[in-house]
Write a structure and sequence with these properties.
Layout lengths: L3 H22 L2 H5 L22 H12 L5 E6 L2 E6 L2 H10 L27 H11 L5 H26 L2 E5 H18 L12 H10 L3 H12 L1 H6 L7 H21 L6 H11 L15 H32 L1 H17 L6 H6 L1 H13 L6 E4 L4 E2 L6 E2 L4 E4 L1 H5 L18 H5 L19 H16 L2 E4 L24 E6 L3
Parallel strand pairs: 2-7
Antiparallel strand pairs: 1-2, 3-9, 4-7, 5-6, 8-9
Helix pairs in contact: 6-7, 6-19, 7-13, 8-13, 11-13, 13-14, 13-16, 13-19, 14-16
Amino acid sequence: MILWSDILFLLGGFVVLVYFFFKRKFSYWAELGVPHAEPSIPWGNIGQVGSKLHTTELFQQFYRRFKGKAPLMGFYATIAPQVFLIDLDLIHRILIKDFQYFHDRAQYYNVEDDPISAHLFNIDGEKWRILRAKISPTFTSGRMKMMLPTVIDVAQNFHKTLFERIGDKAEIEIKDYLSRFTTDVIGSCAFGLDCNSLKDPNAKFRIYGDKAFAMSWWRTIKFNFVSSFVELSRKLHITMTGRDVSDFYRGVVFDTIKYREENGVQRNDFLNLLMQIKDRGNLDGDTINNEGKLTLEEIASQSFVFFVAGYETSSTAMTFALYEMAKNPEIQEKARRNVVETLAKYNGEFTYEAAMEMTYLDQVINETLRKYPPLGSVTRRITQDYQVPETKFVLKKGLRVIIPIHAIQNDPEIYENPDKFDPERFSVENSKNRHSAAFFPFGDGPRNCIGLRFGMMQVRVGLVTVLRSFSVGTCSKTPDPLILQKDNFTMTAQGGMWLTMKKTSL
């Protein structure tokens, strides 16, 4: 017969074992002599992320606390030790010079159970190298120039939608409209389809795009687990993409390819370029070999990441740019003059050349990306033991590395008064005087964002569409101070971004 005292003894023994298990796991950085944040059972140092802290806020705390004490520090995501980089020279080495030690991005994917997750942003090693080489030619400046008319067509619908909604003046939640604009842009440029979200905010592309980024408490737990225990997660068949989201995007790609192949349809869009690689191995007409070709699943996964990454990051960048220009009308007016004067040189037509000449608008965009990088950090995984230069620290193979973009770009020792929105930081002269690792909103090195040109083009077109016809201002609903939505993967204002918009004559 089991007595209550026996049960209590067993429970007590279990608690003691669990306690010492965590204590052992949480001794990793101390034993290596690496400066670190003290963890708490069971979440390590990430217990408040998603509820009380946005990820970028936690990383900013680490950065401010340990800067000047060491080139890096350690922390724990649950029981998994992770590396947090601080020193700019070290960051530059890791992203570029010593890339061979850090070529994996440390993002989870599962080819077997979740094939759409095996896209360029996630995959590692030789698979990444081959796929990057295949897809890079689709993002040249020449290809962007070919896609610009498609973006302009969507921008005209965006302008019409704003004109109808605003009347002479109105308070609107601008992030919603910008997300609908980027959804239609990328739907058209990636899939050659009219997503229709400017007319219908409940369009399927918009709904599934939001689902792809939604971070429920359960998905947050899964994300932390799979990031720390990659191989175990694959053995457990864990997926991060919802089945409905995966089925929707794969279905769109497969059906569109089938229709185009059966009907001989050609378009100047991303999908058409990928279809050429699928059939020929490259974009120049000569087959490389079977390794150079793309499968249907690879096309689906690349189209998926192009859509979800491009629509969210670009709409976020435009949202914060308009927010800052609403608070700083003199900057807004200078940007508007830059737009109007440049377009006048091209008879009012938005050409690729005109976009490249809007230098002050680009300074506004860069200052926005400095203060509010859509992704507040980038990650790498160590692929072989790495001796940190000029230290005694040896970082072991398999460790995940965090590089805090937001914290660096908001460091008052690098950018004086970083809370101030000042596009002059990105004048040619001022840009020359900064460390190369002081501004990298799209990452840096061989694994930087492949869609940088497209993202910048889309943001320029969206902002020009607004500035040439509307003035923006603050209202009683405009966030002040700005509070980040804690459970969002990207940097997003809690409660949306409400601004006043008024028609303006040029």
